[in-house]
Write a structure and sequence with these properties.
Blueprint (H helix, E strand, L loop, with lengths): L9 H65 L1 H10 L11 E4 L2 E4 H6 L3
Organism: Desulfurispirillum indicum (strain ATCC BAA-1389 / DSM 22839 / S5)
Protein name: Cell division protein FtsL
Keywords: Membrane, Transmembrane, Transmembrane helix
Length: 115
């Protein structure tokens, strides 16, 4: 009986079967490890996103507080109150001075000058 190169022997079949089992086990283990790694990355990314969302909420809260303060500071009533506290009020008519022909005149002097 001649031995043909494409025929397999029982020991060769056992080696092929052993290799197939080993390859299958290796593929399964690799799949499990990669699956665990992907799940771990997903969870870690979820924690990062949650932290960023918390920071966004904190910054939006700060922005709201600053906008409210800006509106308060820019309101005419608040500006007028600050001006009164610092003595910056509209002058009375007799306190006004005018420049007429390169001379400074008070309001009552201006009323007396002929035009």
């Amino acid at each position: 009986m001649a031995v043909f190169p494409f025929r397999t022997t029982p020991t060769h079949e056992a080696k092929i079967r052993k290799f197939a089992y080993s390859a299958t086990v290796l593929i399964l283990i690799t799949t499990v490890i990669l699956s665990l790694w992907v799940k771990t990355r997903i969870i870690a990314t979820g924690y990062e996103v949650a932290g960023l969302q918390r920071q966004i909420l904190e910054e939006e809260s700060r922005l709201g507080i600053l906008e409210a303060r800006l509106y308060q500071l820019g309101s005419p009533g608040y500006i007028q109150m600050l001006a009164k506290e610092h003595g910056m009020v509209y002058p009375a008519a007799d306190q006004l001075e005018y420049l007429l022909n390169q001379s400074i005149l008070r309001a009552n002097e201006l009323a007396d000058t002929p035009r």
